[in-house]
Fold these 4 entries.
Entry 1:
Amino acid sequence: MNTPPTAATAAPASPDTNHPPAANAVNAVDERLPAGKLTMLGLQHVLVMYAGAIAVPLIIGRALKLAPEQVAALISADLFCCGVVTLIQSLGIGKLFGIRLPVMMGVTFASVSPMLAMGADPTLGVTGIFGAVIGAGVISLLIAPFVGRVLALFPPVVTGTIIAVIGISLMRVGVNWAMGGTPNMATIPDPAFAQLVAAAKEAGTALPAGPAPMIPNPAYAALDNLGIALFVLVVILLVAKYGKGFLCNIAVLTGIVAGTTLSYFLGKVDFAKVSAAKTFAVVTPFQFGMPTFDVVAILTMTLVMLVVMIESTGMFLALGELTGKRINKEDITRGLRVDGLGTIIGGVFNTFPYTSFSQNVGLVGVTGVKSRWVCVAAGVILIIMGVIPKIAQAAEAVPQFVLGGAGLVMFGMVAATGIRILSSVDYKTNRHNLFIVAISIGFGMLPLVAERYAQHMPKALSPLLHSGILLAAIVAVLLNIFFNGIASQEDAEAAAKANSHGSE
């Protein structure tokens, strides 16, 4: 995932001697460009976010072992909802919803870990995930006006730690993709033993003593597949280094396309389902059944949304500075309400929590175009893509090992963003910050290195206890209060604006 420039490094708006700065800024944000230019700029925003947008449905769908058609349905729903929520955020609805800035909305990576834990719980499953998403969206909608008051609980030492743990947790997914599956697929029962059992049954003789010996799985970590994952990684690095302007912003997508193309010529990709998919299909709500609601799951997802909304606040402040538009508390509240509303819409239409995408904020700085109507055009494009099942089926057909090469970059960049934020923390004069980071990351690693550590704890707490991200967040907040107290509101807003790169 590309790390965008901050507002401080982006090109400033050109001065206008005929208008005061405030009016000039409003004109830049509300400027309506010609249709052709608007469409091309909107498509750029879609391409920049596309790899990150489809990653979460792919992670969740494959982890839950859904059928390819069901995974494609998740992707279609995600693209559709990305478009709808982007329109709400950029256009605005009345006085309640939408910050009315060039903001693209997509599913947050912060929700992956708790959703995987919910999906692994047989009492919750996929309908429990959607119920938790809807419930958290409702609560987020209600608490949006008050999020600014808890901003002081999330200084850089806390947000940096959380984002770093998000990236580290997701790296396991990227590695598993590159390997072709989870570690338990590394060995398989010896087929020769199965043949002996079958022969003994047929002959009516004694069965050979078990259990069946395990042998290395030839499909796991196959060298040709690892080679393609490495090829994808190399393409991404070359585009990132030598690509100019917009091209370097779609380095990950370029790598995925190149890897899929190579896999196709090697006979490793089957696009038969793409040909069989419908050309048009309406995205309908509750395709996987009516959602089920679990209190602990909802509260767990609400904690995720609180973290996401804190990140969004910083992003809105930075984007306001980038576009030259003054952002007040009412603007931020309208923007945060869309996080909540978008998450409700996501749960209803079989997808996940939504937040603003930071790499698209970076594209605003790269292109210098600050019009929110560009994101409106991008939203329309995403809606159209969402109702064309062939697009989603094509995304689902991308081999895991191709996604593995891209995942190492996407998820590694999330971790690197957290590390960058942590680099701004004062460790020299405040050694307590070292304790906050060290212990919080330690708790965040528990579900990764000791998956059954909570086997004697209440199963109802599973969504929380098996989410390293939430464990790290809770511990970091509590330790920061213990060691550093609570910062002033002004300092909290300044820190949030300075560290506005999100975890999506």
Entry 2:
Amino acid sequence: MNHSFRSRLFFVCFLVGSLLSLTVGWAQAQSGTVKGAVVDSVSRKPLLEASVSLLLARDSSLVTFAITDGEGQFVFKNIAEGQYRVLVTYVGYRGASRRVSVTKAEPVGNAGTLELLAQSQTLTEVSVQGEKAPMAVKGDTLEFNAGSFKTQPNAQVEDLLKKLPGIQVDRDGTITAQGQTVKKVLVDGKPFFGDDPKMATRNLPADIIDKVQLMDQLSEQSAFSGVDDGDRSKTINITTKKDKRKGTFGQQSLAVGPKPGDDARYSAKATLNRFSNGQQMSILGMANNINQQGFTAQDLGLGNNFGGSGQGSGGNSGSGSFVRNGGGGGSGNGNGQVGNNAITKSWAGGMNYRNSIGKKIDLAGSYNISNTNTLTNQSSRRENVLPSLGTSGTTTRTDSTFVRNQTNGSENSNTNSRVNLRLDYRLDSLTTIRVIPNLSWLGSSYMNESQARTVNSAGRTTNTSNTNYNSTGDGFNGNNSLFLFRKFRKVGRTFSVNWNVAMNNQDNEGINKSFTQSTTPLSTTTGASSTPTTSDSLYSQTINQQNNQRTRSMTNTINVSYTEPLSMRQTLEFHYNLSNNHNESNRAVTDFNETTGQYDRVNALLSNNFINTYMTNRGGLTWQTKRLKYTYALGLDGQQASLQSDNLSRETNLNRTFTNLLPNALFTYNFAKNTTFRFNYRTRVNAPSVNQLQPVSINTNPLNIQLGNEALQPEYSHNLSFNFNRFDPTTFRNLFASINASRTDNKIVNSTAFGPSGEQTTRPVNTDGYYTVSSFLVLGRALRFQEQRVNLNLNTNLTYNRGTSFVNERPNLAQNWLIGQGLSLNTNLDDKLDLNLSGNISLQSAKYSLQPQQNTTYLNQTGTLDLYYQLPLRFTFTTNVTFNHYGGASGSYNQSFTLLNMALSRQLFKQKQGELRLQAFDLLNQNRSVVRNVTDTYVEEVQSRVLNRYFTLSFVYNLRNFGAGVTPPSNNRFMRPGGRDGQGDRGFRRNG
């Protein structure tokens, strides 16, 4: 039994055993009942739908949650033996609590009748403060009380989100809620460093958070008019505690560690936040060479246009190609490792500011600058199984196979500056002006070296290549939205105008050098001729060129909307959209002149000056009806679009006009206040990009030539979505199901032609018959295990893609399937132990009509264990274990490895605001990156150099200064009420 198999067997058995023990233990231990009733203290009338929380008496951590019925009664079943507190809260009343116990002798804990005192009545003895329910459903918003979900000392917001039902956080910091990716994280309802979710989740402490609100945020226009346009984005809003809105807080850390034979590892980070009621200011800085990022890196695509450089080369032909990636897991301490297939150094700094100026102006803005330097070393094996190459003379070539082995090394450096602003100016109670500018500047440098060798099915070498590509570039990306919102005296009548201007300017200069040998002459579109080499009957081609790419893009869009209420329930919206997208692309390529020693010989085949303008006029109306239980909207738009392409270099132009009807429909039904069904149907037209239209060759890889096609037509797509969302606050059970389907006509796909030596030329073309269906199911609930709550989440996903591309001008129908099943458990077994378990298995299959030899099926399995344990003498132990297994058709791809990270920490100072930490990453030294790319023309396996074992010693200091003194870090759980006996029998705590 080899090591990888033993590791895999051990981890699977451990995971399954843990799940079984939790399930069995839960089933055996839960046998008791807690019941009671809630009434008004004066009228003695029962209170309907009061929030009732069952808490552990020893630390007030949440066990379960319920609401009272029509008689004001509540009951908790399947409760383990132990001591509990029943906490009751109700809008307009002061909370109350009572202690109960469940034992073998008395399995029913009777809380009796709890009397709630109305807020209008005052207590003369002390000022009081009530406790909050752990969770609430408010319309489309799911609200979590952060204090009900325990986190470890000095945790970040990201650690808190991992505890919430229905929310998952990946290793790279991506947040998924109810099966959808969270696009925005707001702080007190306002942006925090723009729309980058990681800036808030990885740079703010969890112990200042009061509530976490999960919602589907409407577009700016829909939120104002009340007419749902179907444009929603999954958003999290974190609200801070009132007593934490005035003070200074932050975190400073420094970590260093030796790395034999390599650079020393280091990581430094500092954040400082100053909140003063409505005014907030945050400053942060960070630097490291261990693949950590507290921000989302932005790359405008400058410099890195080296086609066919290994991973991800060749592009997606629209047939639903699969990409599978593994390795490079997280550090187990919330560090968020990134760069699974590379080694990245990064630094960043920035400032965020928000304030209200008087009663009319709200201002929020941020600036940040970041730099990433990424080193990539890869080796890849690509297999092309090709259909007939056509006829040459009287001989018909049959299907052939080419295997390409390549090594690739690159260094990519990006420096990005971003400015984000949001200004609201209220002219009066009915009129508001909103300005949202976002600006970004990027400087980039890129260096790539690669060597490749291609052999045919007979084992004979058909080509070899050595390529060196260097480039530098800079770019500007700007977007500004100006809104005018106007309400009228008649309720429901509104008028709004939105003017959006978007700019994207890029300048890139590169040097392309390559030497290629092949058994047949290569295509002349490379701009260099093939010269026969008589010694070995090979043709050689040398390229030494300089290319300058200048791209300018500007889009002006005006949206006008007017809503008129037809009745209390019905609204009619009239809207009009005018958009003009103007693109200019000037590519100048010059060959090296050995006589002058300069790049002064113009290459007309590869140079081109191209202008493209896409203008749309769209108008229509939407009729919306709102009832108590349901809402529906029907709309129809008409759009006329014109596409004008001017090829200044060839002195040709194309003018085309397209007319489309764009229907849409929306239906929402609320079965209950926590159960919703939503149906959405949308149509849209997508124009081809200027890079797809420009009819010029990109030859940075002479064996993979990229061409444009100025005859492309816009895509027309139909999109259907079905969403069902249910949350039961009494049991913490949540269910989210979604089905999304789309059909696209004139889909832009790749047409790839192969030469006899294995070289390829790819150009975009239009085709019909593209379908995609995806579904997602999330099930979550809270279990009980020996007086401890365990959050269980199951997620299932299924995706099917069907599309046609072209290989050697022959249609190739591709059908791709993906099915995955995931499971996660997280719990605090006691005050000292925090445990999280997760696992995932996915099966992927790809079938091709033209090349059945390339059909493939493979399996991917992962399992993760996160553990935190509080040791004596203020020591803490943290570990993260990630197991990966990749199974495929190729023996080299069937790999298993385990990534083990550990950390030992010692809390320092009186308030535990300091921490000394010894950390080990990849203790078993098994970390690796394995990638498989499956497309309609090839199957490729890529292995990359990744970050391996290292050790660091770090010091962390947490600053907490609110009001009169320093507040110690909180464990972020319910505070014990402080009544006279310290037990809080009435649910109150003293202020001060």
Entry 3:
Amino acid sequence: MLRNGLAWIVAGAICISPAWADTAKTEGGLEIISSDGRFSAALGGRIHFDTYLFNDDIDDTVSTTEFRRTRITLSGKVYNWKYKLEQDFASGDTRDGFRDVYLAYDFWGGSISIGQFKPYRSMEELTSSNNITMLERPFTSATGIFDRRQFQQGIGWRNHWDCYTAGIVAFNLRNAGELRNEGVGAAGRFTWAPVDVALETIHLGVSYSYEDAGRQSPPLEADAPYAGRRGPRQLMALTPGDRIFFFGDFGDEEFFLGDAGGRVNVGGLELAATRGPLYAQAEYTYGNYDGDFFLSEQSFEDFFGAPPTFGCDPEFGCFIGDQTVRAWYVMGSWIITGEHKPYDARKGVFKTAKPNSAWGAWELTARYEKISNDDIPDLEADSIILGVNFYANSRVRFMFNLRFGHDDFTDNGTDQLGVRAQVNW
């Protein structure tokens, strides 16, 4: 039904009668604007098609292809209100595929958004997937310390003035495709660009995130897909959600018991800079995951992929207290054809370069990232990524990533070659 509804919306926007609209723009996309300027509808989208080839160590990983993203976006305004409806068919044709779905209104110099969108935390998380430097985001994002908590439902305000940005958001711990729950959260981000001229930018940022699992909330996790998408993953930290996720009794071969709920607090720092064709970016996050739960040794191994590296009680199993998680990365690139990555001062993120010639642009990339749990011995993972990006034009990009991943906890060293063909409009 959602697919049919979206089709009718798009068709209605395109086939709108002349009495309501008399202006159609087609530069870089399709946009229709009413004659009085009070209504508009713009159609956009993206296709990211990936190929993954693995060099296995312990895990028997399947090399494969997939549509990483296939999104259709409808955005515009109704009187003084803006809206955005984005469906990712690679994730499902129902609410599972909802991405940005919200209303927005200009308020107090900035904009208030109501609906589903990304909380304001992590520079790379807030960078569009059309503009990220590597195939996947680093461990400081929802691809790590905020595992599976990328889009949330709530209300947020964001503003930009001079060389600063600020944003705050309050949200429910769910997206449209997840179980209704009483978990809540809040996040805020502040950035400063002390230097922002034509070919040089310096960016500084700080963020804070608070999440509190409530009734029917799933467990809050930090995770490490250290060998890339569709490769092996390592659970890095766990905060229990609702008690409906507990199982077993003390003394059983398998059990997961303790206090329901729990909080996650994460602070982050950002540093990035460009100078001509050179670009560098780094983030550091420090998080605390509430614990106070017990796992049998078998359940611990099922959850974390290896036997516990500390002593466990024969009756009460392995006690997991509060867990400190650190994640960080350093990343850089060189556009060897001379182009420059522009800075989006309104959002406090960088965008991809646009080729200067019909021959396209070439970019060499590299990233090192690491995530660790300070309270479970040897629980850490890292990866090194070397890459090449080719920009055929401002809308078409091809990406090649060679990733060397290692999980200290399981001593697994799976590597991945990832390739992406990408178009957006």
Entry 4:
Amino acid sequence: MSKLPQWVGRLGTGLTRLAHRLESQQAEMRGREDDGDTGPRTPSGPERGPGPGPGPGPEKSPGSPGPGTPEGAGTPESPGTPEGAGTPEGAAEEGETARPEQPASVPAPPAYAPAVSARPDPVAAVPWGVRVAAEAAWRLLVLGGTVWVLMRVISSVQLVVLSFTVAILITALLEPTVTRLRRRGVPRGLATALTFIAGFVVMGLVVWFVVWQVMENVDEVSGEVQAGIDDLRRWLLHSPFHVTEKQINHVAKSLREAVGANTEQITSAGLEGVTVVVEVLTGILLTMFSTLFLLYDGPKIWNWTLKLVPAQAREGVAGAGPRAWSTLTAYVRGTVIVALIDAIFIGVGLFFLDVPMAVPLAVFIFLFAFIPLVGAVVSGALAVVVALVTQGVFTGAMVLIVVLAVQQIEGHVLQPFILGRAVRVHPLAVVLSVAAGSLIGGIGGAVVAVPLVAVANTVVVYLRGYSQENAMRAVPGPHGATASGTAPTAPPGLPPGEGGDR
């Protein structure tokens, strides 16, 4: 019983040391968590290294009595001491069991669970061909919608657009004259006024001459047409087709009834003709007004138009404008020369074949020559029909030969020589543009369709070359060995430095 107070004292001292150790370990763990240290934990006691110094001393177990401690104070054999209470290993086990255990990795799904594949990217799931077709399709839809809206706008202001387009064509025809007068010292205003008045006076005289010739010869032509119809009737009666006079009279009666039944429509067409005359006069005035200002202020109008173009594309458009104007000028001047040659040669042929209204027919041939392909066919057919009805089959056949010969010379000699390659347009593009122009603007649309297509072709070709040139400038030049490998070399027999310029 005398040893009981000593044992209790030793037990209290051991518990106190254990509590101090636990507090020091918890403080150390909290400091590491705050610093983000994930390294292995080291014991808080002094480290032992292989370096020189005093020896570590005799190894002591945690439960062995220290200096001044009574023997057997911290031994596990002491009665009443819990197992592991006086050892650091026991304290560490208590700290580890206090924290919840974290799983090392996510457990794998059970074997019976179905495999779920990840969904692919929608862009990667669409085939490449479908993606290309979709990209091209929506761009074509936007382009088609833009063209449709533009056509709707043009059809709503058709008279203004057609008048301004004709004014541009007339300006292209008269502008070289203004330039020549200015080079000779004539002021711009006076040169513009003289050219404008002379040009429209000449065009007015041509129109007046055509109307006068038609009015002078209409009675003669109507009588010859009636005689030609009688000749055709007699030929049908004695032809191998076995046509009877009763059938011919029935056809004539049907024509008279059709004319009588449509009298109201003919009257309304006459009233609409008055509206057409008013629109024609309005269009003529708009054309004259626009031509005058285009001749006088053409460069200023072009500079103002360039300001509407975005700055990034302004340089390319500024270069394409003069080339487009040169193409339009060459087209108008060449077409006038070709049309004049056609009218003169065919008119001379009609005069020597004694066809009535030879001069008005020649003027019609000149005017219809501004409609490529289609105009030549229509005017030539009109001359052949007049010759056939008034002079007979032989004269009609001769006029047909003359018209075909002149048109062949025009297509294979005159147009390539006069117009050249500057305004060369494929025949399919000519036919389609004339058809589209006639549907949109009638005869006027057919006249302006081909020059617009020629100008558009020139602009597209220039802009394509301009963009390719800019792309080549943006590519950095070769350097080092690549530059020496791609540099031009002189042919054999020439000194270095002279081969690159040859």
